[in-house]
Amino acid sequence: MAIADDRQRLMPRPEDLMPDRSQQLTYPGAHLLTNPIEPDFTGEVDDKYQYSMENKELKVHGWVSADPMVGFWIISPSAEFRNGGPMKQNLTSHVGPTCLSMFHSAHYAGFELCPGFEEGEAWKKVFGPVFIYLNSAPTGTPYPTLWQNAQAQAKTERKAWPYSWPASADFPKAGQRSSVCGRLLVSDLFQAPYTWAGKCAFLGLATPGETGSWQTESKGYQFWTQADANANFCIKNVRAGKYDLYGWVPGVVGDYKFKNGPINIQPGVMISLGDIHYSSPRDGPTVWEIGVPNRTANGFFVPDPNPKYVNKLYLNSSRKQVLYPCYKALQLTLIPPPITF
Prior knowledge:
Helices cover 7% and strands 28% of the residues. It contains 2 helices and 21 strands. Strands 15, 16, 18, 19 and 20 form a 5-stranded antiparallel beta sheet that branches. Strands 13, 14, 17 and 21 form a 4-stranded mixed beta sheet that branches. A 3-stranded antiparallel beta sheet has the order 3-4-5, with no helix packed on it. Residues 1-21 are annotated as: Disordered. Residues 201-268 form the Rhamnogalacturonan lyase domain. InterPro entries: Carb-bd-like_fold, Gal_mutarotase_sf_dom, GH-type_carb-bd, Polysacch_Lyase_4, RG-lyase_II, Rhamnogal_lyase.
């Protein structure tokens, strides 16, 4: 199974999750392999959530069989129909062999990501299309060869988006889609140089709402991009409609929302916003700081996994995997002392 360059491995078989070969752990889906068909998996934990991935990275994932050597891949040319924005995590592939194309999910967030409908409310949304790709190679070819080929195909499909072949009038083609471009500048009265380019900022168009509402928005479409080192951005292939422009800048506190929105986007136009400005919220100069505001868990304390509950894929990886029982035990040992100011 392969879901990223650094997340590839041989996988247990579905029979290994049966009661005579595994022990179910704290929640359904997590199993300690006690008597797997392949002895090398003994003592490992299998859990489909260990293979989740952020929407912005969820472009291709799948499986490779050994003999005959065939790859089966799900390619997502666009994430415009997925809910929760670019940092929302979704399931990918797991033991089965299972290969998922997630259109909508409340995983890791709960009911807030479940769309609610009033009685008689009309709603329509196009999910997909997604691309199912099969490739092959002579038996004995290194597994990464098929993975690299699938990645190349995924790039081809992204360049072809939006597809020209769907017959539905609800799927606008390239000439019916628009672009919104500009440059994001960040201002902070307490941090020199006080105004600077918001390099690598994430900017996206989503249903109009409050600042940050894109994180729980599920009914509409979302279109995201990442600005370059000079803070220039261009959000492409946007469906016609009314949107607010949202965003954030790695390393800068707070959420951005375009103050002159909503933006009413007509089919087949290019909208230039020029320089737009985000003022980081402040009550005064920084006294002390823990971590970096980048919407990831990097920098958080993640304990070493209990040797009884490991996935070998992550033993020597920057991605640490810790199961619930370990955190439960830590609650009793890592409660910090009170801080006096």
